[in-house]
Specification:
By secondary structure, the chain is an alpha/beta fold. Helices cover about 45% and strands about 15% of the residues. It binds 1,3-dihydroxyacetonephosphate (13P) and iron/sulfur cluster. The site of 1,3-dihydroxyacetonephosphate has 11 residues, from loops.
Length: about 350
């Protein structure tokens, strides 16, 4: 495809969302990325949080964490360019060790992944022997390696129920754990906030950790009330990494792809998305007849590291290569693979 054709294609979708000068410039970048992608026999996976010009031009596959994990396991390309954050690229490497996995930015972290270490998990296992460990995929490979099974925001309750265990250690997102505990009718404790001597007196099924997403923890019930006051017909969608009182006050909660599908399939005219703000632009581009009520101050600084310029540089210079030591990878693989074996996967509807 030429840069001109690419520009026309992007304009069709993005003329209301991205300024024209930016579209022309990014269409040229996209054209060069597509050429190199072919040359390198690469596939580009992009998370739903990527900025609109990138999201609607170069990826072969877009989706939420679970969908991208599944696709990373299935591709037969030599190279995977992961337009997302480091833990997602690591998951791709865990599933496809024979492929070269590139992350276009040298850092692109995640506050949840940074909240817990492998040693923290080993300490919890020693404190609660025999209790299975479920870890949200938003963590690094060495943490996954200490885990019985991973989950994502779209299958967390299903994963917990599949274990058939009285108790589970659910790490590291405090709010996702509280939301899943509420959904499955379980009680949760946080060992770091509870004296060990009191454990025996308490009745609990979930053992949680205090990690938080620095984006989703910022949404409040007041945000919802203000939006409803101004737009009484607004439908509120909250990601399950939001605080439990926010999820409770929303009309719907689900993974990023579940939110995309909800807006696509619903007839309502107005939506408030309590999640990373680029996704609001991506949904607005796809649904010109629907209004996304903007609260767009909240962009994930880590997802924001991934630009089209960096994606081109990743393919030109074959950077930044993601490696996972084999001894960690094989154990992390079991945890991710057990998750992939459960249920139909994909977004909850
Ligand atoms: P999803 O799996 O819902 O896409 O979430 C990933 C994420 O990082 C949300 O902040
Ligand atoms: Fe991590 Fe939150 Fe950014 Fe997702 S949005 S990558 S959970 S910091």
């Amino acid at each position: 495809m030429s840069a001109t054709l690419m520009y026309e294609k992007m304009k069709e979708k993005l003329s209301r969302v991205v300024p024209d000068a930016e579209l022309r410039y990014k269409a040229e970048l996209a054209d060069r990325i597509l050429e190199l992608k072919k040359e390198r026999n690469a596939v580009i996976l992009a998370h739903n949080y990527m900025e609109p010009a990138l999201y609607y031009s170069v990826p072969d596959i877009t989706g939420d964490s679970l969908e991208l994990s599944r696709k990373a396991a299935q591709t037969d390309a030599d190279v995977i360019v992961f337009c997302g954050v480091r833990f997602m690229a690591e998951t791709a490497k865990i599933l496809s060790p024979e492929k070269t996995v590139l992350l276009p930015a040298s850092k692109a972290g995640c506050s949840l992944a940074a909240s817990i270490t492998a040693e923290d998990v080993r300490n919890l296992k020693a404190q609660f022997p025999g209790v299975p460990v479920v870890t949200y995929v938003n963590c690094y490979a060495d943490v996954k390696a200490e885990t019985d099974i991973c989950c994502t925001s779209s299958n967390a309750a299903m994963v917990v129920e599949s274990l058939d265990s009285e108790q589970v250690i659910f790490l590291p997102d405090e709010y996702l754990a509280k939301n899943v505990a509420r959904e499955t009718g379980k009680t949760i404790i946080f060992p770091s906030k509870t004296p060990q001597a009191r454990f025996d007196e308490l009745n609990y099924q979930f053992i949680g950790w205090h990690g938080k997403c620095e984006v989703h923890e910022r949404f409040t019930v007041e945000d919802i009330e203000n939006a409803r006051r101004q737009f009484p017909d607004v439908i509120v969608l909250a990601h399950p990494e939001c605080p439990p009182e926010v999820v409770e006050a929303a009309d719907f909660s689900g993974s990023t792809t579940a939110m995309v599908k909800y807006v696509q399939e619903n007839k309502a005219e107005r939506y408030l998305l309590l999640t990373e703000c680029s996704m609001g632009d991506n949904i607005a581009a796809e649904n010109p007849d629907k209004e996304m009520v903007r609260m767009c101050s909240i962009r994930c600084p880590h997802m924001n590291q991934i630009t089209m310029e960096d994606t081109l540089a990743a393919l030109e210079k074959m950077q930044y290569v993601i490696d996972v030591p084999e001894e960690i990878r094989v154990r992390a693989f079991d945890a991710v693979n057990r998750m992939l074996a459960i249920g139909p996967g994909g977004a909850r509807d």
